[in-house]
Automatic annotation (TrEMBL):
Pfam annotation, one family: RepSA
Domain of life the protein comes from: Bacteria
Organism, scientific name: Prauserella marina
Protein name stated in the entry: Replication initiator protein
InterPro entries found in the cross-reference section: RepSA (IPR046828)
Length: 381
């Protein structure tokens, strides 16, 4: 496979990435941030409800493949952006579906980057999928490969010949099976902290976090349901990974295939009707976004819970574990309680914790008829 840049993509200037995670400072005290929205390319004209004007010419195949590989495209965009600006850009982002059921990215970026650079990086970013060609189904309906216990592989139901193995199929690839790009619609905006505008854009990032994808992409008309059905039908025959069982329909044996594998039946999220190809990670946070380690975040969560419990008179003092010695239990140790006792004690402990925390949450709720004021929900679009 070629590692050269595609001729149809503009070149990008690159710089050595510095260790800093913040952008320029303006007027000696302002460090503005950015809010950026990236979308997929167009697959055909759509109406206001997201359904295609002409479903016959709407490119469902490309829409399905773009959705499956959207997360890889986003990762490549971050790599390119960091190389162009020359510092370790940090972000908090969410991946959400549009009305047309195509994924798009909302992201907050620490530091200011020119709008021209954002547009240039977006136009020059692409992801090549170096997989075997899967444009035409080899098996369909009742004519599907069968598992041969003698050879330990899937074989053709008529000839008995083993299917092409994954590594062999990849070796024969001469051009990418698919190329993913962003669309032309790029929205970027500079934002200052502690402003009304900052609260509104935080709402964009947080308003969907407690909702399932099915609640976000909800078909309210027959036309929308037909559109989602067409997209799901294409996703059901679009491989999502080298281990996807859909590869068997194209005459290729995926990695990890065994006698329990059913051709064309993959449990990946990309093939579900409720997700319509959206990636499993809908919230993307860079490692240095908060400047804290995993241990710091764990300590923050513990402190938050303790404060909540203390507000209703439940005090949980910090245990001193410095004098404890941890060692593995030797087989046959008579001082170890039975496993059933340990499990029941752990369950009882968790039930107690849950009841105490629920009590603290109920006490923190406002009186009936009043609603808490937050910076995100009332201002979210």
């Amino acid at each position: 496979r070629s590692t050269k840049r595609r001729q149809d993509a503009p070149d990008l200037p690159t710089r050595k990435v510095a260790k800093t995670t913040v952008g320029r400072e303006f007027a000696g005290r302002f460090r503005p941030s950015m809010f950026v929205t990236l979308t997929c390319d167009t697959y055909g004209r759509v109406r206001e409800d997201g359904t295609p004007v002409d479903s016959g010419s709407y490119d469902y195949r490309r829409a399905a493949r773009d959705a499956v590989h959207f997360s890889s495209l986003v990762d490549r965009w971050w790599q390119n952006l960091r190389r162009v600006v020359g510092w370790d850009v940090q972000y908090f982002a969410t991946v959400e579906p549009q009305k047309r059921a195509a994924p798009h990215l909302h992201t907050a970026i620490r530091g200011a980057i020119s709008h021209e650079v954002i547009r240039l990086v977006t136009a020059a970013t692409y992801h090549q999928v170096w997989w075997p060609n899967h444009d035409r189904l080899v098996y369909d309906g009742d004519q599907i490969p069968v598992w041969d216990f003698r050879t330990g592989s899937f074989v053709d139901p008529d000839t008995g010949r083993p299917l092409t193995g994954w590594y062999q199929a990849v070796e024969e690839v001469e051009e990418p099976a698919h190329v993913v790009r962003f669309g032309r619609q790029v929205h970027s905006k500079g934002i200052l902290g502690d402003t009304e505008e900052a609260g509104r854009h935080i709402g964009y990032l947080t308003k969907y976090l407690t909702k399932s994808t099915g609640e976000v992409v909800e078909a309210t008309s027959i036309r929308q349901r037909d559109h989602h059905d067409r997209l799901h039908a294409e996703l059901s025959i679009t491989p999502c990974s080298p281990r996807c069982a859909v590869w068997l329909l194209y005459g290729i044996q995926p990695l990890g295939a065994n006698a329990k594998t059913t051709p064309g039946r993959c449990k990946g999220r990309a093939h579900r009707r409720s997700t319509l190809g959206l990636p499993g990670r809908r919230v993307l946070v860079s490692r240095k976004w908060s400047g804290k380690s995993l241990a710091d975040h764990k300590a923050d969560r513990k402190r938050f819970v303790r404060d909540m419990l203390a507000s209703v008179g439940i005090h949980k003092p910090e245990r001193d574990t410095t004098r404890l010695i941890w060692r593995k239990v030797a087989p046959g140790d008579q001082q170890v309680p039975p496993r059933a006792h340990l499990l029941m004690r752990a369950i009882a402990e968790r039930i107690t914790w849950r009841a105490e925390y629920d009590r603290a949450l109920l006490a923190a709720q406002p009186p009936p008829g009043q609603h808490p004021q937050t910076s995100a929900t009332p201002l979210a679009a």
